[in-house]
Amino acid sequence: MALTLSIFLLVLQCAFCARYDPNWASLDSRPLPAWYDEGKVGIFLHWGVFSVPAFGSEWFWWYWQGEKQSAVTQYMQANYRPDFTYADFAPLFHAEFYNPAQWADIFNASGANYLVLVSKHHEGFTNWPSTYSWNWNAGDVGPKRDLVGELADAVRQRTNIKFGVYHSMFEWFNPLFLQDQANGFTTQNYVRAKTMPELYELVNKYKPEIVWSDGEWMAADTYWNSTEFIAWLYNESPVKDTVVVNDRWGNNTRCAHGGFWDCSDHYTPGTLVPHKWENCMTIDKYSWGYRANAQLSDIHTIEELITQLVTTVSFGGNMLFNVGPTAYGEIAPVYEERLRQIGSWLNVNGEAIYKTHVWTYQNDSVADNVWYTARTNGSTTVYAILLSWPEVGNLTLGHPVASRSTVVSLVGYPGQFKFFSPSSGGITINIPPIPAGQIPCDWAWVFRLEGLQNQNTKLDSFAFSKKLKALQMRKEFPKFQ
Questions:
Q1: Cα 267 to the chain's mean position, in Å?
Q2: What Gene3D superfamilies does the record tag this protein with (predicted)?
Q3: What is the arrangement of strands in the sheet containing 445-450, beginning at the earlier edge strand?
């Protein structure tokens, strides 16, 4: 018995002891660390020199000098001297009100379990004093601080949130990249001088537990040396046992390789996907970075954000909510409010989100705006999440099948609810009048269904794998609205 237990513990300890080769067949065989799937909710932060003009989006430089969009060009002509360059914005990136401890407390209140900070966007400016970005980094110009390191320290000291970094592989106007591009990506001078040295530096210095890659779409993973880096990340890096990566490592890797898939921004497949995936979306409907001229109508309501969260988790995804801090180093009040509202909802209903898995059905066949998740701990509990409160005193659900031991309750409200099984099937819950002061939350309500006859999840994996492959071949990914 003791020998058997020892062998079991050894196997458990070595779940991540395998040696991974620098090819996708080997890298994709690595189990996804459980914390990522269980966490479900993350915060994305787009912050950089683009936060100074705070106009249009984080693609400001490209729209100004790449595509030369008229709105951005007119904005510059109206507000800046004729010889003003994008580099002149960097000294104005003061971040004078940047308080990492305050940020960490806001993120903790949001209920998020992980954080992804943009360490470098496509403009090339690094938010840490990088050895490989001379005079175009937050240590040399602008804040003259280590923005990445300070936030990493605050988050780890004040919360249990996992700290991660976003890193753009390419830079719009970097001469080395442009030369590699002109050479048809047969040379790798930019990759050797910038992309890979920065990635190794980030991981060794800050030990992020997420490496969220982007800006890969112009060239294949072989140009970027992606598999070599990820093999090092999984085999030798200081975070080799816990780190997770996304799928943006070359123009041939999205929705195909990586620890979890993003596939596209605002990815909402509207179907089950046979791989862990993430929906990264902006709270500002039109930009990832901060926009000084954003209107309240441009900001997603809390109802819209909770709808995205619930539907995403019902289909097995994670939710990554994006906020753009100001150049002053502030989380604008409207974004702080949204994050705290998400946290207050999760504080009541988190058991229907965290550590859950998909159920046999994702949304109900009879009741509108009802979505399902499930949690298994010995027995399985099914959660029916209502995005709108029923107009009548009864709620009929088409998919749950009651048994003699079924118990129905409203998460955050005391007691059990009566129910019956209608002749048409499903279950009808009798909802008594609930005083306004006792309703557990203001948006989206969760019924806990225990002891259902059909509580255990049953999915036809082959069917939805086949469906996804057909969509991939046609390059179609349906959006859930």
A1: 10
A2: Glycosidases
A3: 370-377, 379-386, 445-450, 407-410
pLDDT band at 18 (very low <50, low <70, confident <90, very high): confident
pLDDT of residue 481: 26
Residues 464 and 472 sit within 8 Å (Cβ to Cβ): no
Contact in structure between 238 and 204 (CB atoms under 8 Å): yes
Residue 401 sits in which domain range? 370-450
Q: Do residues 38 and 354 touch, judged by C-beta distance below 8 A?
A: yes
Q: How does pLDDT run across 326-362, given as a tens digit for each residue? A: 999 999 999 999 999 999 999 999 999 999 999 999 9
Q: What is the pTM of this model?
A: 0.92
Domain of 435, CATH number, reads 2.60.40.1180
Can you give the C-alpha Rg of the chain in angstroms?
A: 24
Start-end of H helices in 187-280: 189-190, 196-206, 221-224, 226-235
Q: Are 75 and 53 in contact (CB under 8 A)?
A: yes
- 51 and 190 inside one domain: yes
CATH code, 236: 3.20.20.80
Structural domain contains residue 6 = no
Query: Does some domain include residue 364?
Result: no
Alpha-carbon distance of 258 to 405, in angstroms, equals: 42
CA distances to 254, 333, 350, 451, 458 from 354, in Å = 26, 26, 6, 20, 20
Q: Is residue 84 part of a domain?
A: yes
